[in-house]
Specification:
The complex is a heterodimer of chains A (936) and B (389). Chain A is α+β, with helices and mostly antiparallel strands. Chain A is 36% helix and 20% strand. In chain A, the strands form six sheets. In chain A, strands 9-8-5-6-7-10-11 form a seven-stranded antiparallel β-sheet, with helices on both faces. In chain A, strands 26-25-22-23-24-27-28 form a seven-stranded antiparallel β-sheet, with helices on both faces. Chain B folds into two domains: 6-150, Glucose Oxidase, domain 1, CATH 3.50.30; 160-388, 3-Layer(aba) Sandwich (Rossmann fold). Chain B is globular, with a radius of gyration of 20 Å. The chains are: A alpha+beta (936), B alpha/beta (389).
Chain lengths: 936, 389
């Protein structure tokens, strides 16, 4: 292996390892060189995709096979386990004059064995003496020089044996990475921005430090605070996948918090995650052993401390450094002290100390049996310190702020008219960077209108948390307490014209009403209108009043309620909790048995709210509309048709703009309804409406008076900056003023396709459903639908095959419709394979089809064929009552062996169009700029 | 939870910072300065250049990795007081042999914790380094402010005399094992454990003036095959020459360089006789001996992240600094060239005589704590001695 050899050549130590291109070779390496446990890493995959830890030969066999398959070069690295060692990262930069700087040192709370993307990480490193730290720095310099990174940033990961200090180089990424984004936010040193300047020939000393203005970028940031990053996982969306963490990254987002101490930053970080914790709370009841890293281990460790376990023992079990555990113990000790008081006896000093330890008002209130408002009334306001790269050695001119309970405040609010934008918090499935895009555009648009813009967010992966996106940046949790603190500080001078809650997804939207009640001005659509749209009963009454059809529905507060409602409206029904995004715990129920199970889940997902039960419109087409309303006018930005039929979450469905299968009449009905709803809700700003068309009736499914996931997609397709315009509308401009008075015309076709993470969640069923699971999206554009679709699939990493064997397995409902698809595929030269039922059906119309065994029929069966690489495309539609077990085995194998998988008929039809287009003509490229300028 | 007793820092300008006592109890005056290094508190405590100063660590968590025998830069801590935001309740490091608080108590260092150190640093940055007093005994603010005003001022103070060795001694130790094994930094540096390097051929004999010398400087010389004789600050030039040195080293140290008149005089006599290398106070003394002037900086440079440009090559080094005085660039005679400048404030960081074998740097190429970017200077001195031999 090249990297390892290079490291050995310059005298650095690495874990013992070897590369295997076959399972046998892997086993041989483990026996002779590394010994068990071993780490398996597929070569050249992002985020260590397909890797894992093998404790014995059986485990190694499975991991090596999968890893070799998922590596684009067909090899895996078999490595000596350094599990339980301390893990460090250095973010470094180098310029063409060989100047070298360390931007940030990071120490992982979770020891080696957990992917760094899945680890809680802390900056700066806390438990290394200078002598040890400088050894890492020297190594980093040697590594970047040896690898030959002439200019730019790199990330170098180290393992350190806590018993003797042996240092091994784990890996280096000769590029900006997730960690460099984190390091940039953690230090105030914008790595990517500086790397770009270095790439065009500047040297570090020629670039100015934006924050101090007087010093150059050729220095090493020093921190007088502590940064904690905590990953956010969405395991609940992948039933059947064990919730344990290993070298495969599975988190979908992260929150970062800044505090003067680790304790303060940790608690702020935990409440930033929006997982129901407001600090270092009591853990889940299903405690797992502490040596198993899980998403909730941090809470379980805290519980062990609460139970009086000595930290030495916890350190031994978990391999978490005792220093971190001691800090957590201090939190628990203070918690115990708080519990001995009531609100009346709570000493002011103790309250202040609790705030300095990062406790939220809500936590303290629980301990003293009071409520958060009472605590708020009794405590001091926080102060704001600046992130300045230099520990206050130089004056900071950039208001990049974090709250803390100290004595000096550096917020220095201005006299200007200001608008505050609340960001989306950590990325999660259902609420990703689309919302950050909207927040950033809002900041730009409002700055253009002359407002001072104030951004509040806690997601280090975003552009909104760049210190130069808005005029002022507060890197803070998006909770009522933390946001209100900022509102109060900013309102002390100048005029806070309002807070924008529409652009950050559900996170800020949930704060709209509490902030409004606290007297904070909310810009745009009123909190009452937001509630009107979100509250199922109120919204339903509005639709009746407007005479707009909606699917039959009811609200259940218990399982009995749910049964009665379901019987009344008829199965199948769609069950979902209120106030969640991304279809969390949303399911289609075909029977009372299904219902019982899913209603229980929905109650868990949103315990304080009723469960929504809707008539499920089978085989309906769904349509999404994004529009802007200004109180008198509603202008549609774009109408998107889902490619998958109803039942697949809009976030997971491919979509096409303009709609390709909706009649002019229905489109006009949709436009009318959108307009009527926009006016009736009194919307000011963005709104998103979802419709379903079944049997010639257009139903409204829901209306969201906020930015939607599709706003960036539509803005790019139609060439109109919807988020910017909406922000200006919210600030008081009319659509007339802004020149947006009619729905933009769309030229050609734009297809959005979801990027699905099933490869990282092996064992989960890749069947699309009402629960969203995609973690990203891509756009394909062409003058016809087929090529636009083909491009989108290509971009999403689904290679549509041009030849080979297609496996078909569809349920009875879909059998007649599959015939046309089978015929088209046959005509394009594909060979058809199917299991018995489908094969017989196809054979009836005289199409050549090969029959293959189902898994339960025995080998050689379809999964064997997939494993052997004989299948180029799988069309498997289990939509219907059963077909879950065999279908799941096929879909899991498809994910594992990277075979394109299609689970709905409409997507299969789209794929046929795509393949046809690919075979007919080469794809062409045109920039969006060219496309839009040719429109004018 | 157990809470520490109250303690106060009072500054001569009347500012008060109320926190809690850490380390030894009592009261101590000193010039209040801050260092921005995130690691290396034990090296800071034991660096004689901090003699007479109360040092603020800007990094909030201090004491995390404890203390050990290898990381001391001299025989004992020298700071007059120590200020940290948060003292670690535990020690976590495989090299640790003790905890920070016990170390401070054993050496009678009064420390203060749980204050807004950033507020204090901003105060010092804006008003300049000033005298202060830390006390865990007397908690009366008026009395403390009065005491701080009555304490010794840094300008004009000859502190080298207070920290220098009393007797001549030799140094034979290389870099410590954990570093040597992992950190090959130059071809001249020979890996060794922390054992006497007796077997080695001693290529050069250096006589080092001890104005408060740090052990790592001595280790750097030893690693390069030098025999080092350390002499007290007041040693006369004639006595130094009698030792037949191949080179003379002027060490770092505390206080106002202009007050170290005896060393300036000695250096004048030594110039041109043997190669001279100076670090920190030694650099200022060489500057003064060459006829330049020194001045006091507003709050000095202290930390391990300072960008220094080596003018002959144009390369930037990240360096460790600990100085409150500097050589005035405008006062340098024509025979002296500036070799290094600080990119933050253009302060003189290195100089060299154009004709005589003498050079010096204001910063700390021996690091400890800090980056190892400037170790080449020790090689350069070895080269200079070789050429002059």
């Amino acid at each position: 292996m090249l990297f390892k050899d290079a490291m050995l050549e310059i005298g650095l130590d690495v874990p013992r390892s070897g590369v295997a291109s076959s399972v046998e070779q892997a086993i041989d390496l483990a026996d002779r060189v590394t010994h068990y446990p071993v780490i398996v890493r597929p070569s050249f995959t992002l985020g260590g995709s397909g890797g894992g830890i093998a404790r014995d030969e059986t485990e190694l066999r499975a991991l090596a096979e999968r890893g070799i398959k998922s590596s684009p070069v067909g090899t895996v690295l078999i490595e000596e386990s350094v599990l339980g060692w301390k893990e460090y990262e250095l973010e470094v930069m180098r310029d063409r004059a060989d100047n070298f700087v360390v931007i940030c040192s990071i120490e992982n709370f979770d020891p080696m064995g957990v992917h760094t993307g899945d680890s809680i990480t802390v900056a700066p490193a806390q438990t290394l003496s200078d002598r040890e730290y400088q050894v890492l720095r020297d190594h980093a310099r040697q590594v970047i020089t040896r690898v030959g990174v002439e200019t730019g940033g790199s990330n170098i990961q180290f393992g350190v044996n806590p018993r003797d200090g042996r240092v091994v180089i784990i890996e280096m990424n000769p590029r900006v990475s997730r960690s460099s984004a984190l390091a940039s936010k953690a230090t105030g040193f914008p790595i990517a921005k500086i790397a770009a300047k270095l790439a065009i020939g500047y040297t570090l000393d020629e670039i100015r430090n934006d924050i101090t203005r007087v010093t150059p970028a050729s220095f090493e940031p020093t921190l007088d605070y502590v940064v904690v990053k905590i990953p956010r996982w969405d395991f609940a969306k992948f039933p059947g996948v064990p919730q344990t963490l290993d070298t495969q990254m599975r988190s979908v987002g992260e929150a970062m918090a800044i505090g003067r101490t680790f304790k303060e930053a940790l608690q702020k970080g935990l409440r930033s995650l929006e997982i129901g914790a407001d600090g270092l709370n009591v853990g889940a009841t299903h405690a797992s052993p502490l040596q198993t890293a899980t998403p909730h281990r941090i809470f379980e460790i805290a519980d062990a401390i609460r139970a009086g376990e000595p930290i030495e023992k916890i350190a031994q079990e978990s391999a978490v450094d005792p220093w971190f555990l001691a800090q957590m113990r201090e939190i628990v000790e203070l918690e115990n002290e708080l519990k001995t008081h009531t609100l009346e006896t709570l000493p002011k000093d103790l309250l202040r100390e609790a705030k300095r330890f990062g406790f939220s008002d809500a936590q303290i209130a629980r301990f003293v049996k009071s409520d958060a408002a009472q605590i708020r009334a009794r405590r001091d306001a926080p102060v704001y310190h600046r992130v300045d790269t230099c520990a206050a050695e130089f004056e900071a001119f950039t208001p990049y702020l974090y709250s803390t309970y100290e004595t000096s405040d550096e917020a220095a609010p201005s006299e200007k008219n200001k608008v505050m934008i609340l960001g989306g918090g950590p990325n999660r499935i259902g609420q990703g960077i689309e919302f950050d895009y909207c927040c950033v555009h809002a900041a730009f648009a409002l700055r253009d209108l002359g407002y001072e813009t104030i951004m509040v967010n806690c997601n280090p992966e975003t552009v909104s948390t760049d210190y130069d996106t808005s005029d002022r940046l507060y890197f803070e949790p998006l909770t009522f307490e933390d946001v209100l603190n900022i509102v109060e500080r900013e309102s002390s001078r100048g005029k806070l014209c309002g807070v924008i809650v529409q652009f950050g997804g559900q996170t800020p939207l949930k704060l709209a009403l509490p902030l409004h009640r606290a007297g904070v001005p909310i810009l745009g659509t009123s909190p009452d209108a937001i509630d009107l749209a979100e509250d199922r009963e109120r919204f339903s009454a509005l639709l009746d009043q407007l005479n707009i059809p909606q699917p039959a529905h009811g609200l259940a507060r218990s399982l009995d309620d749910a049964r009665i409602i379901a019987r009344e409206i008829g199965y199948p029904v769609l069950v979902r909790p209120s106030y969640v995004l991304g279809g969390r715990a949303m399911a289609i129920c075909y029977s009372e048995n299904d219902l019982a199970h899913f209603v229980a889940e929905a109650i868990i997902a949103a315990p304080d709210h009723p469960v929504l039960i809707d008539r499920y419109l089978e085989d309906a087409y769904e349509v999404d509309v994004d529009a802007i309303a200004d109180g008198t006018r509603v202008v549609i930005g774009g109408i998107l048709q889902h490619i998958e039929e109803a039942g697949v979450h809009s976030g997971d469905s491919a979509m096409v703009l303009p709609p390709y299968k909706v009649s002019f009449f229905h489109l006009n009905t949709i436009r009318e309804y959108t307009h009527a709803l926009g006016i009736a809700l009194g919307g000011r700003g963005l709104m998103n409406a979802q419709f379903a068309i079944k049997d010639d009736i257009v139903y409204v499914l829901e209306v969201n008076p906020r930015a939607s996931r599709t706003v960036p997609f539509i803005s790019k397709a139609v060439g109109v900056p919807l988020a910017k315009i909406a922000a200006q509308v919210m600030a008081g401009k009319s659509l007339d003023d802004l020149g947006l008075i009619e729905e933009p015309r769309v030229d050609g076709f734009f297809v959005k396709e979801a990027v699905l993470p099933f490869k990282k969640f092996l064992g989960a069923d890749a069947l699309l459903g009402p629960e969203m699971r995609s973690t990203g999206e891509v756009m394909g554009h062409a003058s016809d639908f087929g090529r636009a679709f083909a491009k989108a699939e290509m971009a999403a990493g689904n290679r549509l095959p041009l030849a080979g064997q297609v496996f078909l397995s569809v349920n009875d409902f879909d059998k007649s419709a599959i015939l046309k698809i089978a015929r088209d595929l046959n005509a394009m030269g594909f060979r058809l394979t199917a299991t018995r039922g489908t094969a017989e059906f196809i054979a009836r119309v005289n199409l050549p089809v090969e029959q293959i065994n189902k898994v339960r029929d025995g080998s050689p069966h379809i999964v064997d064929a997939i494993r052997a690489g004989q299948i180029a495309l799988i069309i498997n539609t289990p939509l219907g009552r059963d077909a879950h077990s065999d279908g799941k085995a096929i879909r899991v194998a498809a994910t594992q062996y990277d075979v394109p998988l299609i689970t709905t008929l409409s997507a299969a039809q789209a794929a046929v169009s795509g393949i046809r287009a690919l075979k007919a003509k080469q794809l062409k490229v045109r920039s969006l700029q060219e496309h839009h300028s040719s429109q004018k | 939870m157990q809470r520490r007793p109250e303690a106060i820092l009072a500054l001569e300008d009347g500012a008060l910072f109320r926190g809690r006592a850490f380390g030894a109890r009592g009261e101590h005056c000193g010039e209040v300065v801050f260092t921005t290094g995130m690691t290396g508190y034990q090296e800071v405590l034991t660096d004689p250049s901090y003699h007479g100063q109360i040092v603020i660590m800007t990094c909030p968590h201090i004491g995390n990795y404890g203390v050990n025998d290898d990381d001391a830069e001299s025989a004992r801590p020298w700071v007059s007081g120590f200020i940290v935001r948060e003292a670690s309740p535990v020690v976590s490091n495989w090299r640790a042999t003790g905890d920070l608080e016990s170390y401070l108590i054993a050496h009678n260092i009064v420390a203060l914790t749980e204050i807004d150190t950033r507020a204090l640093v901003r105060h010092i940055r804006t008003r300049g380094a000033m005298r202060g007093i830390i006390s865990s005994d007397d908690l009366d603010s008026e009395s403390l402010i009065h005491k701080s005003r009555a304490s010794r001022a840094m300008s004009g103070a000859d502190l080298a005399r207070e920290v220098t060795c009393t007797q001549v001694y030799e140094w034979n130790y290389g870099v410590i094992a954990s570093e040597a094994k992992q950190s090959p930094t130059s071809e001249l540096e020979i890996a060794s454990s922390h054992k006497p390097l007796l077997a080695m051929t001693r290529a050069f004999h250096i006589v080092a003036y001890d104005f408060g010398i740090k052990h790592n400087i001595l280790r750097m010389f030893a690693e390069r095959g030098c025999r080092v004789t350390i002499v007290p600050a007041t040693t006369r030039a004639e006595d130094v020459l009698a030792l037949k040195p191949d080179g003379i080293f002027l060490s770092n140290g505390p206080g106002d360089p202009a007050a170290v008149t005896y060393a300036i005089e000695a250096t004048k006599k030594l110039l041109g006789r043997v190669p001279i290398f100076g670090i920190c106070l030694g650099h200022q003394i060489l500057g003064l001996a060459l006829g330049a002037k020194t001045y006091k900086l507003k709050f000095g440079h202290r930390g391990g992240n300072q960008p220094v440009k080596h003018l002959p090559s144009g390369k930037v080094e990240i360096t460790t600094h600990n100085h409150g005085f500097a050589v005035d660039a405008n006062s340098l005679p024509n025979a002296v060239e500036i070799t290094h400048v600080n990119l933050n404030d253009n302060c003189v960081e290195g100089l060299r005589h154009k004709n005589l074998p003498a050079f010096s740097v204001q910063y700390h190429p021996e690091a400890a704590p800090g980056p190892h970017d400037a170790r080449y200077l020790f090689d350069e001195f070895a080269r200079m001695m070789k050429e002059s031999k």
